[in-house]
Amino acid sequence: MMSMRYIGRSVPRQLLRLNPQLPRRTLSTVRQSTLLQQSLQGVSGPRYAAFSTSQVVREAESQVDQQLSAKLESELQIEKETRDSDTIPAEIQEYIHNSPFQLEDVPGQEEVALTRKFGDESIRITFSIDDLNNVEQEADEYSDPALTDEEADDLAEMNAQSGGANSKGAINQGRTKGGNFAVAPEDSIAPSDRAEGSYDEPSSGQEGNQAPSFPSRLHINIEKAGKGVLQLEAVAQDGEIMIENVHYYKKAELADAKTAELDWSRRNLYAGPPFGNLDEDLQILLDRYIEERGIDTALALWIPEYIDWKEQKEYLSWLSNVKSFVEA
C-alpha cells in the first residue's frame, strides 16, 4: 500500500497531466534577466593571464644569466692557472713519438684509441677518460665521514696483519680476478731471507709525492685477416697491465658489435673462463704475449697520465661551451 506522503506528492503531477491548461510555475522575468546578465558578464568580461610577464621577472632572469656566466668564467680562469691543457706534457709527447702506436683522439669524445701493425696483426687498444670520473664517484660513495680514529686504526692493523692482496710480502702463487695475488701464510718470506735488491723501499723523499693511481680499463683487439680476433679485457694501474678476460671471435665484426644483431649473436658465444682461473703458466705466457706487442709497463704508466690530461682539456672545453651558450 502506498503511503500518504507518496500520494500527496503524486496528486499534483497527475492533475497537471490531465489539465494542461492549468498554469505552470515559471521563473519571473526579473529572475531571467538577472541570470542572462550574469552569463553575458562571464563571457564578455576581461581575461587575465595566470602568470606575470612583467619586466621585473625578465630582469631577474637576466641577472641570473650574468651570475652564471661570471661563475663559469671564474672556473675557466682557475683551471687554466692550475694547469695548461693546451700543451701536451713532455712525458706524454715522448711516449707518442717513441711508441709504435698511432694515437686516435677526437676532441669532444671520451674514448681514445691506439693502433699499430705487428706482423700480419692489426692491434687496437681503446680506453676512456670516463674511468677517472668513475673513480672519483666511487671514492665519494665509499668514504665514511663517521669512521672514528679508533676504527680507522683497527682497519689499518687488520690490513697490515693480512698483508693485503698486493703487499710486497706476497709471492705469485696464483692470480685472482682483477690481477691481485692470493697470499697464504706460507708465502711470506722474512726480509733477511730475501735476495739483496729484490725490492726497494721508497725513500723518504719519494714517499707521498707520487700522484694517486686509478684503474684504467683497456679493450685490446688483436686481429688477423680472415682468422678472427683475439680480444682481451685488461686494467692498467701502477705500471702493470692486468688481464681479466680473454675472448676469441671467428668473425672480426663480433669483437666490437655495432648492431643489435651482432651483439645478440655474440652473447650466445662461449666467452672462456676468467683469466684468474687459468693455469698459472698460461697466464704468464699470455702476459708475455701482449708485452711482446708493446702492451707493457710503459703503456700502463702512460695511459693514466693521458686520461688525466685529456679529461682536463675536455672539461675546459665544456666550461667554455656552456658559457658561450648562456651568453648567446
Which sequence of SSEs, written as H and E, runs from N to C?
A: HHHHEEEHHEEEHHH
For the largest beta-sheet, the strand count, sense and barrel status come to: 6 strands, antiparallel
Average pLDDT metric = 74
Strand order of the largest sheet: 1-2-3-4-5-6
Basic shape: globular
Uncertain segments: 1-13, 22-32, 162-183, 185-209
Helix content range: 40-55%
Taking the alpha carbons of the first and last residues, their distance comes to 86 Å
- Rg: 38 Å
* Number of DSSP helical runs: 9
Number-wise, the strands total 6
Strand content: 5-15%
Structural class determined from secondary elements: alpha+beta
Q: What would your notes on this structure say?
A:
The protein is α+β, with helices and mostly antiparallel strands and 328 residues long. It contains nine helices and six strands. The chain has helices at 4-18, 29-44, 55-82, 90-98, 130-142, 149-162, 260-267, 280-291, 297-327; strands at 102-105, 111-118, 121-128, 216-224, 228-237, 240-249. A six-stranded antiparallel sheet has the order 1-2-3-4-5-6. It is globular, with a radius of gyration of 38 Å. The N and C termini lie far apart (86 Å). 12% of the residues are buried. Residues 1-13, 22-32, 162-183 and 185-209 have low confidence and may be disordered.
